[in-house]
């Protein structure tokens, strides 16, 4: 039976941070589902870095359908979790159904890949305390407040938790996530 991977996201997620792992994991042979607050056409954004701006810029990105609503997710059926960034984690962290999903992955010590602002979700369920992580660099104080040791690095692996700063780090992020995933939930 093919291992299933869950991506949790919503509107205003960074396009590349959803679609790159989605396609890369499918390429490896995993069955990948996208869950959101509701089954609907999600609207992603593109964050870019432009000269003269103190922070990233945001433009409309791709649209993509959510396969499941958070309330429909049976976390026990999934081998691993992917948490993209963008602005979505800012409001998703308040969703009680999503918080149950996140907690179940951490309680079972299943592989979790998070990137950019995604660690705001894992912080909301106290999943970062005592761990080493990276995130979008502006989140360093948030990571420290969540009890994590922040490292400004391309990728940080702490057991089954794999984190990266932003989409420019995708190759290292997915390389390390797949290394952990293949050991914990190989494609059959």
Written overview of the protein:
With 188 residues, the chain is of the alpha/beta class. The chain has one domain: Class I glutamine amidotransferase (GATase) domain (Rossmann fold, 3-Layer(aba) Sandwich). Helix content is 30%, strand content 27%. The protein contains six helices and eleven strands. It has helices at residues 15-27, 88-92, 96-107, 119-124, 140-145, 170-184; strands at 4-8, 31-36, 41-48, 57-65, 68-69, 80-83, 112-115, 132-133, 149-150, 155-158, 161-164.
Furnish the topology, listing elements before pairings.
Elements: E1 4-8, H1 15-27, E2 31-36, E3 41-48, E4 57-65, E5 68-69, E6 80-83, H2 88-92, H3 96-107, E7 112-115, H4 119-124, E8 132-133, H5 140-145, E9 149-150, E10 155-158, E11 161-164, H6 170-184
Parallel strand pairs: 1-2, 1-6, 2-5, 6-7, 7-11, 8-9
Antiparallel strand pairs: 3-4, 10-11
Key terms for this structure?
6 helices; 11 strands; alpha/beta; 188 residues; Peptidase; seven-stranded mixed β-sheet; globular; DJ-1/PfpI; two-stranded antiparallel ribbon; Rossmann fold; Class_I_gatase-like; C56_PfpI-like
- CATH-wise, what's the superfamily? Class I glutamine amidotransferase (GATase) domain
Number of strands: 11
Mean pLDDT: 97
Please report the first level of CATH classification, the CATH class: Alpha Beta
**Residue runs with pLDDT of under 50 for 5 or more positions:** none
Structural class determined from secondary elements: alpha/beta
Terminal CA distance reads 6 Å
The largest sheet has its strands arranged as 5-2-1-6-7-11-10
CATH topology: Rossmann fold
Beta percentage is 25-35%
Number of helices: 6
Tell me the number of structural domains.
Answer: 1
Architecture (CATH level 2) name: 3-Layer(aba) Sandwich
Shape: globular
Radius of gyration: 15 Å
Proportion of helical residues: 25-40%
Q: Order of helices and strands, N to C?
A: EHEEEEEHHEHEHEEEH
Largest sheet: 7 strands, mixed
Oligomer: single chain
Organism: Streptomyces griseorubiginosus
Family: Belongs to the peptidase C56 family.
Domain DJ-1/PfpI: 4-178
Protein name: Peptidase
């Amino acid at each position: 039976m093919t291992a299933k991977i869950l991506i949790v996201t919503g509107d205003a997620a960074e396009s590349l941070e959803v679609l790159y792992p989605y396609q890369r994991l499918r390429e490896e042979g995993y069955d990948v589902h996208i869950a959101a607050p509701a089954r609907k056409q999600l609207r992603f954004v593109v964050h870019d870095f432009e000269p003269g701006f103190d922070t990233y810029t945001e433009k409309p990105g791709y649209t993509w359908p959510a396969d499941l609503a958070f309330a429909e997710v049976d976390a026990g059926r999934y081998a691993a979790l992917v948490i993209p960034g963008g602005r979505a984690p800012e409001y998703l962290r308040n969703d009680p159904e999503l918080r149950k999903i996140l907690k179940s992955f951490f309680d079972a010590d299943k592989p979790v890949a998070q990137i950019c602002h995604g660690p705001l979700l894992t912080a909301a369920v106290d999943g970062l305390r005592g761990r080493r992580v990276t995130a979008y660099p502006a989140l360093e104080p948030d990571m420290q407040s969540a009890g994590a040791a922040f490292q400004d690095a391309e990728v940080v692996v702490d057991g089954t938790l794999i984190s990266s700063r932003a989409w420019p780090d995708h190759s290292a992020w997915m390389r390390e996530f797949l290394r952990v995933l293949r050991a914990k939930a190989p494609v059959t």
